[in-house]
């Protein structure tokens, strides 16, 4: 069908009236222009997020259509001149142009849409048997078609930008979700956050606690929202807190902040990083700092801390006892049988102390062959003395170890709270002095600090 150029513009205007760039419409527009100018081929390319021109629509007799083109093939040409329509001809260069070789022609035209000196999309035509006489009309038609498909390109750019942003968010190792600040409806959740709960669709049209804490019927009592806005309801600063997930016991460092969502409403963004390994390391460091690596008993540091804590929780009308145990003859065991046997003995001794009900959660290794017990005042002095007597009975017999039997005894010093001291260090000093006096007297007995 042949139409004059002005009728072509009118027909094209009537065709390109939709606000949405429909592929069928673009195809019809290409067909109309191609038939008017007797073109063999016509193409629409759009720059994708990888920096290549990607084929969108085309009119071509060839089966093997070039679906991707490098931008540099066109950008080298548009940098040399400023025009609506550009021509690539074999006559322009004695050497065969790469573009001409791709489309198997001696002349082609293209109309680009330039964004920040880069091609966003372009319409490309391959000259047929009849020469193009009115390049201005052809350029106008190409520009009209580009304006029609521009919204599609911007939509695709937004989609690609969102995909890229989501890909970044999903690969940062941080879990993120956003909910409405007041209704708590979930507005967004990234993949890593959603995965343990069954995927992103499990969060759609639900409130945060319905997914994260299904046993709750309302806002979580530990939700930090009150810390995220000021008295005027405006966002303040990021609030940080640690949280252990009920689902699997994992620990997370959580960052909460208020901000304005895309529709203007106040939203609450929660991001979290898995710190389970950190917590385990912290627990290990805490354990090593407070527990004896050989016997597994709490050490002197823990002893002083716990003793002072107990003292601070009681009044002076309540009594308590601190018992200081020192092994008589432990050096002989080490010298005779070696340190491995000595260590085995200390482990057995710790287990023995823990087997006594009164001492089970009250015994500490002070260092070397010294052990200390903190006993609250719910035991009488007579009962205390009976317990110490049973401990001495154990020492009256040889200790059966893996390869030997070791014989030794124990000296015990006893300090009373508050008469012998009102701090852990004062009580330890008094009990140590009483124990030392027992040891000088031959060992194997006990002495109260008040009897010094």
TrEMBL record:
Pfam families (alphabetical): GGDEF
Gene3D superfamilies documented for this protein: 3.30.70.270, PAS domain (3.30.450.20)
Family matches, as InterPro entries: Biofilm_reg_signaling (IPR052155), GGDEF_dom (IPR000160), Nucleotide_cyclase (IPR029787), Rev_trsase/Diguanyl_cyclase (IPR043128)
Domain GGDEF: start-end pairs: 318-451
SMART domains, sorted: GGDEF
PROSITE patterns registered for this protein in UniProt: GGDEF
Name of protein: Diguanylate cyclase (GGDEF) domain-containing protein
């Amino acid at each position: 069908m042949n139409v004059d150029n002005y009728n072509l513009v009118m027909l094209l205007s009537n065709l390109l009236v939709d606000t949405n760039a429909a592929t069928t419409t673009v195809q019809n527009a290409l067909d109309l222009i191609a038939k008017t100018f007797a073109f063999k081929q016509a193409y629409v390319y759009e720059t994708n997020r990888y920096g290549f021109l990607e084929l969108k629509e085309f009119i071509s007799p060839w089966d093997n259509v070039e679906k991707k083109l490098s931008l540099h093939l066109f950008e080298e040409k548009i940098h040399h001149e400023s025009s609506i329509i550009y021509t690539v001809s074999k006559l322009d260069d004695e050497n065969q142009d790469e573009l001409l070789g791709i489309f198997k022609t001696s002349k082609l035209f293209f109309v680009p849409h330039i964004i920040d000196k880069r091609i966003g999309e372009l319409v490309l035509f391959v000259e047929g048997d009849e020469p193009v006489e009115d390049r201005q009309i052809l350029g106008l038609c190409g520009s009209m078609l580009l304006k029609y498909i521009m919204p599609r390109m911007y939509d695709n750019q937004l989609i690609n930008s969102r995909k890229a942003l989501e890909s970044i968010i999903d690969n940062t190792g941080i879990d993120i979700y956003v909910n409405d600040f007041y209704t708590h409806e979930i507005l967004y959740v990234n993949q890593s956050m959603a995965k343990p709960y069954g995927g992103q669709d499990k969060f759609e049209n639900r409130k945060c606690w319905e997914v994260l804490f299904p046993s709750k019927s309302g806002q979580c009592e530990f939700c930090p929202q009150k810390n995220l806005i000021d008295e005027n309801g405006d966002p303040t600063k990021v609030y940080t807190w640690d949280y252990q997930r009920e689902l699997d016991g994992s620990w997370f460092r959580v960052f909460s902040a208020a901000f304005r969502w895309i529709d203007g409403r106040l939203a609450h963004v929660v991001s979290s990083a898995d710190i389970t390994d950190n917590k385990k390391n912290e627990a290990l460091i805490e354990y090593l700092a407070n527990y004896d690596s050989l016997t597994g008993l709490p050490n002197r540091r823990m002893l002083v801390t716990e003793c002072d804590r107990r003292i601070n929780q009681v009044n002076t009308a309540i009594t308590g006892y601190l018992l200081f145990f020192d092994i008589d003859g432990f050096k002989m065991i080490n010298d005779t049988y070696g340190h491995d046997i000595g260590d085995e003995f200390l482990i057995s001794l710790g287990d023995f102390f823990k087997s006594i009900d009164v001492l089970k959660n009250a015994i500490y290794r002070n260092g070397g062959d010294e052990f200390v017990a903190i006993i609250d005042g719910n035991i009488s002095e007579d009962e205390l003395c009976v317990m110490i007597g049973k401990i001495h009975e154990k020492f009256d017999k040889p200790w059966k170890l893996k390869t030997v039997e070791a014989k030794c005894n124990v000296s015990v010093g006893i300090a009373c709270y508050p008469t012998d001291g009102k701090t852990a260090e004062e009580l330890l000093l008094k009990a140590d002095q009483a124990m030392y006096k027992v040891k000088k007297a031959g060992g194997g007995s006990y002495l109260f600090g008040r009897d010094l």
